[in-house]
């Protein structure tokens, strides 16, 4: 009953927001042929607004009460806020809609013509589809397993790390840091999620819920918050302490190889659940709150300290230069 009530409330709010704001703007912009897509986009916009409200009303006060470190670089935090607004208010998703969605629509259209049938993971066990919370939990675990391996690939692939290192370059980590990513890094991750969602047949509403829960939890994990969940809680859900170790300089993004030199790798790759780190030997449960960043920001290499940029445009441009070995 609670799930049904939440779905009904969300549907009413989405319809109201669409009719009052989005639909008039689309007609004014000559986008009347995309109203159905605009309605779907309104759902993502509503999710983003709810997430922002929770961040400001709950996570923000917690950061001020129990900070892991003093807030010194407010300019860096403002850049992270810009990243978050671009993502949560749907601007990045609109770009993906025009650039990527048509390619996926064509791909899956060809697959269905060739006889590929839609598979629904939650239909493997009779009765699960009648238990919405159980079905949602199942998809959360599956996507989290995928997220763990995507995250490890971001750290262990030299090319991918050149993009993903931007996320780790934040020396002043806060609840806004989660979306501090290179746009190409986001694009690769989103493409994988779309492919997986099609392969396991998750319903659109459930996919929105999985993404919303994951994003909000990640905002909390990145918070400038001295918080851990206790001996057993740390092994049930990723805490700010657990994830801060993943961002710790020289710990979370590398380890010492046989040669004695640091090599790409790290620890605590779990997105929501630390289970995968425990299972595959990448968990670090030390109760420490280390400085965050990338080693080459503080230890000069052959060309000195690496510059990751101070603003959105500079960070995106330098990420491209790193990708092609120019920075």
Write the layout of secondary structure elements.
Layout: H1 2-28, H2 35-65, H3 74-88, H4 91-99, H5 101-113, H6 132-156, H7 158-168, H8 183-200, H9 204-221, H10 230-233, H11 240-247, E1 254-256, E2 262-264, H12 275-280, H13 295-298, H14 312-323
Antiparallel strand pairs: 1-2
Helix pairs in contact: 1-2, 2-9, 6-7, 6-8, 6-9, 7-14
Q: What would you say this structure looks like, in words?
A:
- The protein has 327 residues and is mostly helical.
- The protein has one domain.
- Helix content is 61%, strand content 2%.
- It is built from 14 helices and two strands.
- The protein has helices at 2-28, 35-65, 74-88, 91-99, 101-113, 132-156, 158-168, 183-200, 204-221, 230-233, 240-247, 275-280, 295-298, 312-323, and strands at 254-256, 262-264.
- The protein has a two-stranded antiparallel ribbon.
- Helix 6 packs across helix 8 (183-200).
Number of folding domains? 1
How much helix, percentage-wise, in residues?
55-70%
How many H/I helical runs? 14
Major sheet attributes: 2 strands, antiparallel
Gross geometry: globular
Order of neighbouring strands in the sheet with most strands: 1-2
Radius of gyration: 21 Å
Q: Mean pLDDT, nearest integer?
A: 90
| Poorly predicted segments | none
Query: Distance N terminus to C terminus?
Result: 55 Å
Strand content: under 5%
Broad structural category: mainly alpha
